[in-house]
Structure formats: structure tokens, C-alpha cells
Specification:
The chain has 313 residues and is α+β, with helices and mostly antiparallel strands. The protein has eight helices and seven strands; from the N terminus they run E-E-H-E-E-E-H-E-H-E-H-H-H-H-H. The strands form two sheets. The protein has a four-stranded antiparallel beta sheet with strand order 1-2-4-3, covered by helices on one side. Strands 5-6-7 form a three-stranded antiparallel beta sheet. The chain is globular.
Length: 313
Amino acid sequence: EGLGGTYFFRDESGAKVAIMKPVDEEPLAPNNPKGFVGRALGGPGLKPSVRVGEAAGREVAAYLLDHAGFARVPPTLMVEISHAAFHQAGEREDGPPPRKLGSLQEFVAHDGDASELGSSRFRAADVHRIAILDVRLFNTDRHAGNILVRRLPAPASGPAAAQAVLDRAGEYELVPIDHGFALPEALEPPYFEWQHWSAAQLPLGAVERAYVENLDPDADVALLRRELPGLREPSLRLLWTTTTLLKACVAAGLCLAEVAAVCTRSSVGVDEEASPLEELCLAARREAEDDLEDDLDDLEEGEEDEEVFLTEE
């Protein structure tokens, strides 16, 4: 599925264990196997704020930022692999198989995705944890198809087992995947599938509140700058901004649906208005520009005073 090249790796028994997404086979990249080509690596991508060939790094970033597996992002890393199955545009001459850079993610066995079940079947904590991740990443592509659903194991019989069933809101757990369109370079409108789910209207639990309180935007930026030096500075600034916003909203008692409303535009297309977050950023920019202009005026006045003083001497 998807518009880019995706390869499943299997173990000796034939079971899927990992998924590889080569950089040069992403949508619009030169070696895309599905015909979606036409742009060089680093050029504008399907989404203007995520460049061609730079989705793989964002897959890794999502895993690195999902501290302690809080939202269950599968382990993901950047690798360089040589394999005969990789697609190369044009005729390939005899020789070694192509060697490619890309993201490698652990394959997660699942029973379907969130589009196949009603959201009321999902535990509120699972929804909240994915929502927390998405707000931090400013995810522009969180649809139901990239939230995997796994059936929880059936509890043993007896009174304790019956209570366990009552204690959990659903029979499933959620696993978020496909983060290639996260951490855009600009405030492109995000898309949060969970925004209108009933669970997003509920208050955060104590564990989720504590997790948000302990987030450190400066440390997260430093982590990505160290581990993913190719991730561009505008994306890192956005991560700092969205994490700071999330912490402030949660501290003020907002639910995640309300946090999402701060990040998203009320309408997209005709008569589109800026989101509250965009308005805040624009106001901050205007204030910074005004302060800079005042500083420059003060500097020029100081230079004029010095010139007069020197002339009078």
C-alpha cells in the first residue's frame, strides 16, 4: 500500500519481521516503482513542507520521540541495504544489487486498522497517547489507515478475568505507523483522524498528564539534531513550538480535541482561515520584527549622537 516503494523482510520461517522504505523510492523520487516520479531528491514533495526523499528520516524521528514506547511506535532506524529486489529506473546492467538508504521498521502483526472498527472500541489511553505524539509531530497525515489495531489476548477465566474485561474499554490496542509526513518545515494544516473521536473529548489520565509534563522540547530538539543531522532546522523549530504548546494546553486542563482545535484550521479551501496556532506564531513574529526595528532605530540614534559628539570636538 502507499505511493512509495515498500519491501517486507522475512525471517527463516517466512514470517514478516521488518519493512524497508528506500529514500529514492519515495513518492516523486527518481526510482519510485509505481510511476510517481519527476522530481529530484530534496525537491518539493507530495506535501509542500516535506521534501522528496526526506520522509524516511521522519519515520525514525517519530520512533526516537516516542519515549519509552509510550504510543507504541515500532522500532525504526535508518539503514543502508543492498538487495536485488530494489527498484532501479531504466535497465539495470549486470552487477551488484542496488545499495539503498532508507528507514527500516519492525513489522507489527495486526488484525486490521482503525478504519475497520468504530473508535468506541478503542481505549481512551491509547487514543490519547497517539494524539500526544501527533500534536508534537504536527502530523499532517494521521488517517485511520495508519493506526494498526491488534486484538488483546483473551484473559483467563474466573472473576479476576471478568473484572479485567470490565477494566479495559475495548478489546484492542493501537499501533501508530507511517510518520513520513510528520514534522513539516512549515505550519501546513495537520490532519488528526482522532480529533473527533469521543475519546479525544475525555480528560487525560494521570499517566498521560505526567508524560506531557515531563516532555522537554529542548532535549527533544537536541536528540534529533544529534541522531538525524539531515532533519532541517524549520522542522526542529516546529517540534519545539508544538511541544511547548501541548504542555501549556495540558497544564490549562484542555482535552486533546481542544488541543487539536488550536492546531487545525476550521475549514480548508475556500474562505480558509488561519488556525489559532498560526495566529499565535504570526503575532510572535510581528512582535519580534517590531522589537528588532526598535533596536535598529536605537542603534542608529546612538551612531548619530556619536557622530555629532565627534564633530563638535
